[in-house]
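Q: Sequence in, structure out?
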Amino acid sequence: MDEEFYIGLNPTGDEGSSYRLLNDPAAPYQRKNVTERKGAVDVRCSLEDVIHGLPDPDNERYFASLIILKFTFDSRRTGRRIKAANISLQFAAMEDGGNDPEVTKIAPDGSFNLVETTHQVAEKRSTGLNIGAPPFAGAKASVDFGWERSTSREAKNATKVVGSIDTRGNTYGQSDTASWTLMENSTTKDGVPSKMRAAILLRRRDEKPFQCFFEIHATTDFKSSIEKLFGSRTRDDPIWFKPELEPTNSLQEYDDTALDSVDIEKLSGVTFATILDDAIRHI
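A: Exactly. Output:
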């Protein structure tokens, strides 16, 4: 039986799972832990890098921000998995009537098939022919002839990742949202990738603080009640960004005067599992 849940909109759950991530009043901007849900399936999102600057050195009209996030989907119990996950991050000004940031690039962007598998699908077609004789003494004689033809075809399935730039809250048609959908391989049924790193490039009209509203909608395969997975919890605080903050440069050194030239495809990626070599050691 499939179950669905929204991050931050769930009833009671495991001990320790009922809490909310808030912005620290002493340091409210760009908190590293975006969201964290623990239970039979763990769901996490964290900020890996935030760089504020310019799209290119000659641009005197716009500013830019590069945001790198890591999403984690881990199972803590045998047989539990996430079949699909929909991620949405909407950016907006913190002040009413302010200039909303525009999403100009994301990675992954588009539709990707991962770990493609093939299997044979059997198909049968039946054909029948009825030969009847004219009625005689109130009776009807007929003979049915038929045959069945069996064929097989090769079907392909794959784990899928789809990324898109969308418009949700901006009434003027400006793209303000980055979205991703992860879907498991329907043949192997081994869940969505355990980790995904995503990149978002924003274009800004000013240097004022802005915010991000995020949402994760997941479909799981477990039969037990959703109450056993995630705790009672209101929505996490939106993520606040402050362009005045220094670049984090955790993954690499960035040229903050030319963020448009950063190859965000190389910064993004997905991982199915992490295997520890030499896990057995003699002490």
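The chain is about 0% helix and 50% strand.
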